[in-house]
């Protein structure tokens, strides 16, 4: 679920593959995204993620049918399918994130893989070279830096350089750590004393702040040469 343009509507995706838009004031249905190639629905599987790109009036959706779709959200009588990426992963998609600064879409999957896509052309950019050992639960871009943060169901978090980082560093895991919480022996009938730590699944991620260390590290990831249509990433 996400808010529509200017926060006036609510966009929902359901377990049957439908995407619907509701008026936030009275909750009446305004439109339903239906496409013939999906048997009158937006997707053939569960809708797993919705992202509104408000500056372009576009909606990005992902589904358990392993597809990623980009819709024209400005159409009043229903969505217009602009681009669809079929077989976007080797397994079901669990999470989707978009970076307007980098123009990238990232998808995390049940097999632990992470795929990167060019937003404008729906072109596959690459995939992270190592798999998480458990399903990917969260993704976050560290905008404006070319770094992706991922987490999985076993509490592992990893940092990955992505385009336009230097080619030799792209998609390589550069740092990893584990989210742990103290375990009380009260869980096993004890008196409540701490008894070590256990990994805990990460279920939400959000990145804020621009520390000096992160800026310095991001500067080392800059491209050796600007790619066509892209300049050097500026650390601010």
Write the layout of secondary structure elements.
Elements: E1 2-3, E2 9-13, E3 19-23, E4 29-33, E5 47-53, E6 58-63, E7 68-72, E8 80-85, E9 93-99, E10 104-109, E11 114-118, E12 123-127, E13 136-141, E14 147-152, E15 156-161, E16 175-178, E17 180-184, E18 194-199, H1 212-220
Antiparallel strand pairs: 1-2, 2-3, 3-4, 5-6, 6-7, 7-8, 9-10, 10-11, 11-12, 13-14, 14-15, 15-16, 17-18
InterPro entries: WD40/YVTN_repeat-like_dom_sf (IPR015943), WD40_repeat_CS (IPR019775), WD40_repeat_dom_sf (IPR036322), WD40_rpt (IPR001680)
Subcellular location: Nucleus
GO cellular component, one term: nucleolus
CATH architecture: 7 Propeller
The first-to-last residue Cα distance is 32 Å
- Give the number of DSSP strands: 18
Which radius of gyration do the C-alpha atoms yield? 20 Å
Main sheet record? 4 strands, antiparallel
Which residues form runs of ≥5 with pLDDT under 50? Answer: 223-236
The number of helical elements comes to 1
Mean pLDDT: 83
CATH superfamily: YVTN repeat-like/Quinoprotein amine dehydrogenase
The CATH topology corresponds to Methylamine Dehydrogenase, Chain H
The gross shape turns out to be globular
Listing every helix as H and every strand as E from the N terminus to the C terminus, the arrangement reads: EEEEEEEEEEEEEEEEEEH
CATH class membership: Mainly Beta
Percent strand equals 35-45%
> How many domains make up the 3D coordinates?
1
Helix amount: under 10%
For the biggest β-sheet, the strand order reads 1-2-3-4
Structural class: mainly beta
How would you describe the overall organization of this protein?
The relative contact order is 0.10. A hairpin with a 4-residue loop joins strand 6 (58-63) and strand 7. The protein is globular. The strands form five sheets. It has a four-stranded antiparallel sheet, with no helix packed on it. Strands 5-6-7-8 form a four-stranded antiparallel sheet, with no helix packed on it. The chain has a four-stranded antiparallel sheet with strand order 9-10-11-12, with no helix packed on it. It is 4% helix and 41% strand. The chain has one helix at 212-220, and strands spanning 2-3, 9-13, 19-23, 29-33, 47-53, 58-63, 68-72, 80-85, 93-99, 104-109, 114-118, 123-127, 136-141, 147-152, 156-161, 175-178, 180-184, 194-199. The chain has a single domain (2-180), classed as YVTN repeat-like/Quinoprotein amine dehydrogenase (Methylamine Dehydrogenase, Chain H), CATH 2.130.10.10. It contains one helix and 18 strands. It has 236 residues and is mainly β.
């Amino acid at each position: 679920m996400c808010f529509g343009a200017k926060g006036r509507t609510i966009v929902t995706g359901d377990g049957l593959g439908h995407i619907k838009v509701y008026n936030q004031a009275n909750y009446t249905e305004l439109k339903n995204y239906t496409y013939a190639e999906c048997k009158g629905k937006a997707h053939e599987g569960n809708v797993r993620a919705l992202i509104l790109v408000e500056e372009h009036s576009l909606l990005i959706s992902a589904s358990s049918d392993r597809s990623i779709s980009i819709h024209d959200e400005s159409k009043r009588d229903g969505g217009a399918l602009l681009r669809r990426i079929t077989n976007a992963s080797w397994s079901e998609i669990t999470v989707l994130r978009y970076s307007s600064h980098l123009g990238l879409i990232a998808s995390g999957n049940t097999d632990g893989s992470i795929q990167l896509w060019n937003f404008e052309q729906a072109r596959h950019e690459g995939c992270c070279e190592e798999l998480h050992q458990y399903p990917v639960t969260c993704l976050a871009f560290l905008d404006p830096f070319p770094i992706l943060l991922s987490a999985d169901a076993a509490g592992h978090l990893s940092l990955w350089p992505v385009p336009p980082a230097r080619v030799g560093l792209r998609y390589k895991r550069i740092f990893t750590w584990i989210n742990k919480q103290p375990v009380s022996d009260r869980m096993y009938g004890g008196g409540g004393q701490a008894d070590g730590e256990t990994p805990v699944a990460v279920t939400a991620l959000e990145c804020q702040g621009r520390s000096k260390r992160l800026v310095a590290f991001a500067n080392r990831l800059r491209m050796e040469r600007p790619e066509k249509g892209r300049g050097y990433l500026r650390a601010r």
